[in-house]
Amino acid sequence: MVRPTSLGRRLLRWAIALAVAIFAWFALQRLIGRVDWSAVWGALSGLAGWVVLPLLLALVLRQLLNSVPLTYYVPGLTLGKSMLSDTTANLVGTFAPPPSDLVVRISMFRSWRLDPAAGVTGGALNTAKFYAIRFLAPPLGLLLLGVHEAERRQWLLALACVVVAAVLLGGLVLLLRSDEIAGWLGRTAGSVVRRFRKDVDPRAWADSLVDLRARSADSLRRGLLPSMLALVGMVLADATILVLSARGVGIPAGTLTALEIIPALLILYPLTLLPLFGLGVLDAVLVGSLTTMAGLAYEADVVAAVVIWRFTTILGTLALGLVTLGWWRLTTRNVDDEGDPAVTPSGEERRTP
């Protein structure tokens, strides 16, 4: 039976999504005028068949790169299993109230006989890195765009984003150096999960994270730069999907080059902090920016390209999550969550929180 609080949260999420969609509609009208939706549909229906496979490959690459950081936090976690947990948790978290994604991560890590506390905490740390990458994207976009073509307001925005990213990364480094911060994060994560699993002991989670920090601090520090580079690659893969979408609907490279499309998205990437990855708001501003560069004659094609990009990155990711959820159910023996032992890197079994 669904509890009233959960139902209320779901209704609130859909109400927010509806409000964002309505806002996006009016923003789109203000930014680029009245869209010829029949022309947009014509561009969508004329999508070149050759682009479908590259779109899927770019999407898989995006998800793989997004899964790299977690492998540094959880001993014994392979890249393939990290991708399984990320895409499945994203699917569950989209349609169920939080912390449903944490609950499914716990079940997956227990079924693989890995430390679930490390997995959940690693997911939280990975989220912190992704927030940092969101704010590092605009400076990267300006570098790709070129110093002379960037406007002053864009450089001011980039500078502010660099400061925010530095604060986030500084906090992450402090976490790796401090038992107190590690313990606080463990207790917080344990308290959240305890609302749904009464057998969880937040103090045990805190002790587990402090132990993880002590055992893995060196490897986590070594993995900080590689994992950040992987997330930069993930953002670039996301932008590549937009480039492929533009080519697929017939926008020529001479009209809108990759070095115009990619910076346009990267500069706006902090808008993905909004609900549903900035759905609506980001799209409206992005369409306005790309249409300004390509010209009004390509307005319908630009809208179609953004729609395909969204379809691939949102619905495509959810479809991958459905596949990974089914694969996990079919190939992994579900273990009893009550007191399932986890195997440490040394091979010894111990009781997890």
Number of domains: 1
What do the pLDDT scores average to?
78
Number of strands: 2
Helix-strand pattern: HHHHHHHHHHHHHHEE
Question: Can I get a quick summary?
Answer:
By secondary structure, the protein is mostly helical.
List the helices and strands and how they pair.
Blueprint: H1 4-32, H2 37-45, H3 52-67, H4 70-73, H5 79-95, H6 100-111, H7 116-145, H8 152-177, H9 179-194, H10 202-248, H11 258-267, H12 275-278, H13 281-294, H14 299-331, E1 341-343, E2 349-351
Antiparallel strand pairs: 1-2
Helix pairs in contact: 1-13, 2-14, 3-5, 3-10, 3-14, 5-6, 5-14, 6-7, 7-8, 7-9, 7-10, 7-11, 8-9, 8-10, 9-10, 10-11, 10-14, 11-13, 13-14
What does this structure look like?
This protein has helices at 4-32, 37-45, 52-67, 70-73, 79-95, 100-111, 116-145, 152-177, 179-194, 202-248, 258-267, 275-278, 281-294, 299-331; strands at residues 341-343, 349-351. The protein is mainly α. The chain has one domain (31-342). The chain has a two-stranded antiparallel sheet with strand order 1-2. Strand 1 and strand 2 (349-351) form a beta hairpin. Helix 1 (4-32) packs parallel to helix 13. The protein is globular and about 60 Å long. Residues 1-5 and 334-353 have low confidence and may be disordered.
